[in-house]
Amino acid sequence: MVFPEYRPRRMRRTETFRAMIRETRLAPEQMIYPLFVLPGKGVREEVSSMPGVFRLSVDQLAREAKECLSLGVRSVILFGLPEKKDGLGSGAYANNGIVQRAIRELKNKAPEMTVVTDVCLCEYTDHGHCGCLAGNEVDNDATLELLARTALSHAQAGADMVAPSDMMDGRVSEIRTALDENSYHMVPIMSYAVKYASAFYGPFRDAAECAPQFGDRRSYQMDPANSREALREATLDVDEGADILMVKPALAYLDIISRLRDEFDLPVAAYQVSGEYAMIKAAAEKGWIDGERVMAESLIAIRRAGADLILTYFAKDMARLLANGQ
Length: 326
Ligand code: PBG
Prior knowledge:
Shape: globular
Bound molecules: ligand PBG
Number of strands: 12
Mean pLDDT: 97
CATH architecture: Alpha-Beta Barrel
Order of helices and strands: HEEEHEHEEEHEHEHHEHEHHEH
CATH class: Alpha Beta
Number of helices: 11
CATH topology: TIM Barrel
Strand content: 15-25%
Low-confidence stretches: none
CATH superfamily: Aldolase class I
Structural class: alpha/beta
């Protein structure tokens, strides 16, 4: 087909034509909304580097969940800020830990909400690393048991799905085994299979107070320069029993999302992280970009690259925009 017989502009002439041939769509149920839970009562405090995102105490969760549900956003992922931190991150797997309480509250007050939990130790360790330490290094194998305990305690509290984000080797099979041995064989694992050591997590570390107190996460999270390694990471997690493979961050790693989509048949998730959100919000506040359009464009780009679902702080805003017919 060559010009002038073929004119691509013909099918772009009206919105009805454009909608008719649109290749990618985004629906509210494809988005998971992250929630930060902290101790106290009646607490609703905005994260300074993430305008529009709030840290909530347990009693505020039901209202938030109902708002999400009314917009068609049917799942949330929980991150917790414990009362106190220690070397082994014991708050992560405490029966009455902050996330465990949050799960029970949501399951009680908003049972239609699907509750996913982030499984990691970094918010719960006093050193801020995602596992326990041996000297100044994160001890992979000793961490596995703590992660499995965390995932199991989430399932016992009623979590619908667990999402390990620690990047320890072997954690998916350890978690799968712990869940299965305790009759939680129906709780799926969404693995942060391909998680890069990224500067885009900056605002999240303010929100969740989990910046490492020494060093960085490069000995466990992936080198941003690597793409073939992403396939090896994903292969391991598939073999260990992951149900969903996640790539994180999203917009700077669209090629990775696309490769995973081509190479694997499991659902692929992408996490549009805090820094991606903060950049769009900040530029929009300055009037330098149209924040709403940039939000919609980046989310559709993540879907176009191959993500089936997206974890995003924009979930509510985007759902609202979709409800208004874009
Ligand atoms: C915990 C975790 C992090 C994020 C999700 N889970 C922080 C990190 O690895 O440093 C980042 C999410 C975001 O930036 O929005 N390990």
